[in-house]
Amino acid sequence: MYQVLYRKWRPAVFEDVVGQPQVTVTLRNEITSGRLGHAYLFTGSRGTGKTTCAKILAKAVNCLHPVEGDPCNECEICRGIDDGSILDVVEIDAASNNGVDNIRDLREEASFTPAAAKYRVYIIDEAHMLSTGAFNALLKTLEEPPPYVLFILATTEVHKIPATILSRCQRFDFGRISPEDMAERLEFVARQESVSITHEAALLLGRLADGALRDGLSLLDQCIGAGGVITEEVVEKTAGLAGHDHLFELSEAIFSKDTSAALLLIDRLHQASQDMSRLCEELIAHFRSMMLIKTMADPKGLLVCSQQEFTRLKAAAEKISLAGLLHLLSSLQTALERLAYTPNRRVEMELTLIRMASPELDASADALLRRVKALETAVRTGQAGALPANPEPAVPPPAAVAEIKQPDSPPAPDAPKTAEPPAGPVAAPAAAAALPSPLACWPDVLEELSSTAPPLRGALEGTSAYLSGNRVLIDAPNPFVLKLINEAGHKQALKTALFHQTGKRYALGPYQRETVTAPEQGDPIHALLQQAENRGISVEISKD
Predict the structure, then answer these.
(1) For range 127-154, the mean pLDDT
(2) Long-range contacts of 166-170 (CB under 8 A, 24+ apart)
(3) Three-class SS of residue 413?
(4) What is the pLDDT of residue 533?
């Protein structure tokens, strides 16, 4: 009879356990040195090797010929534990045996010495399912068991284990297996099964498994059933990744504010028996992928998609701002909670899509703040729909019109002529006007960069900006900041933020800290020195 891959290739020694060196090394050292604990707690997500390590540990402590902490898997004890003929190793499913009576029976059995093995080992799987009374009944035995009894508790929800139980166990945390480690194991299994698989397909299977090797092996089993060489296309088809066109259609309808198209698509999916809660979860994952694309330089390691779908996601993410994506994700998370108890899921999903496609109907505080910010930006840039970009000048009042129509009156004959001001004082204001002036809206520019270009915003912390003609000069003490700004993406983000806050397009440049002095003829010190020289007086000016 055919045996599925995750059972056929379950590790038999600690060395074969993938991605958990912090657990396997410690357990092997304890077995080798003889420093065994009486109770262990294995915690972690599904498919990471908790039950597997518990079985290996049960065999290793009872093996007649252990090999550096690993069981030999050849002696009668190891073979008896594998085939279930030795009753000294008991595996209990706490999901179905979670009552006080079950734990009382366990305590009675624990009082008897092992029949064939050295230790009587109790493996309690899904230990968090035990009732409060069962935990209390186990407490004393777990604290002071007989010397020949070993408890191994495995759970995926360690927060449900009472603190009194946790304090009596050695805790080992199993982390999620990385896609690279999982791909290496899947390729090994495929070679042993005489199946061809590409490295890209193995990596995609590793990402789809979400850290659970058991899920990865189950997916590999499905792909083998498809026949032929396992490629990315085969994995996509088998795992159902190829049918995401409706998500792109829905997102396009939301971005273009086409509520009619969104509702028609919901109707089509409803007629095809699409579950609305599942659709909401898929949309959340879809917009999360766009969020990662907009916030990370290389998000491929966190996305489960093919190269073609990644290109489509990247193009779609360019049509919406990061703030808009966060709003959509927040709306969908709220809708997912409501879908759990609403009587009509289709109506709830339709209401959510209408609010997402029509922001003016969303009365939440976040939506109102975004609308106010968008209105401020439109007014600054002259792109408000209700206001003309270049308004005509207002008609002057009647008094001003009458004043314009009056001819210039000649000067009075007895009016004294005012002397022309000297050249020096007149030139000084012109020089002062040429100095760069501080850019008042620079804090608002930095605030906008917090959402559009967070790395650049962090680099610009503590800087200031000055306005000089059609250029904005950045005063940054660290030259690295200027190099960062010169990158194409950062420069464009900064120019866009400046345009949103000022309504004008500016060039960028560095601010040079140079002292600008007025011309010599306008300097009073220079005039005094000139008078002293005319009178033959020698004057020396100290640099101090």
Answers:
(1) 91
(2) 166/41, 168/39, 168/139, 168/142, 168/143, 169/37, 169/39, 169/40, 169/41, 169/142, 170/37, 170/39, 170/40, 170/41
(3) coil
(4) 64
d(CA 268, CA 426): 77
In the predicted model, what is the mean pLDDT of residues 10-30?
A: 91
Let me know: does 17 contact 52? Beta carbons within 8 Å: yes
The tens digit of pLDDT for each residue in 504-529 reads 888 888 887 654 444 444 556 666 66
State the pLDDT at residue 218: 92
Q: Over pLDDT 90: what percentage of the chain? A: 28
Contact 127, 97 (CB under 8 A): no
In this structure, what DSSP letter does residue 82 have? H
Residue 401 has pLDDT above 50, yes or no: no
How is residue 424 written in tokens?
């020096």
State the Cα–Cα distance between residues 272 and 89, nearest whole angstrom: 50
Q: How far apart are CA 104 and CA 100, in angstroms?
A: 6
Query: For residue 530, how far is the Cα from the chain centroid?
Result: 70
* In the predicted structure, residue 57 carries a pLDDT above the cut 90: yes
DSSP secondary structure string for all residues of 289-342? HHHHHHH-S-GGGG----HHHHHHHHHHHTTS-HHHHHHHHHHHHHHHHHHTT-
Tokens of residue 311, six digits: 């290109």
Please give the C-alpha separations between residue 22 and each of 28, 111, 507, in angstroms, as whole numbers: 11, 33, 55
Q: What is the per-residue pLDDT for 85?
A: 87
3-class secondary structure, 466: strand
Strands (E), 64-148: 89-93, 120-125
Q: Rounded to an integer, what distance in angstroms lies between the CA atom of residue 533 and that of residue 425?
A: 22
Q: What is the pLDDT of residue 400?
A: 38
As a whole number of angstroms, the distance between CA 319 and CA 522 comes to 57
Tracing tokens 């401020």 back to the chain, one arrives at 376
End-to-end CA distance of the chain: 99
Q: Read out DSSP for 133-144? A: HHHHHHHHHHHS
Alpha carbons 497 and 448: distance in angstroms, whole number: 6
Strands 39-44 and 149-155: parallel
Residue with tokens 């004393």: 140
Q: How far is the C-alpha of 135 from the C-alpha of 124, rounded, in Å?
A: 12
Q: Is the dihedral of CA 275, 276, 279, 281 positive or negative?
A: negative
Give the 3-state secondary structure of residue 257. Answer: coil
| Mean of pLDDT values over 224-244 | 80
- State pLDDT tens for residues 319-365: 888 888 888 998 899 999 999 888 889 999 999 999 888 876 666 66
HSE-up of residue 208 (Cα within 13 Å, Cβ side): 26
Which pLDDT score, from 0 to 100, does residue 397 have?
43
Q: Tens digits of per-residue pLDDT, 192-219?
A: 999 999 998 898 888 888 889 999 999 9
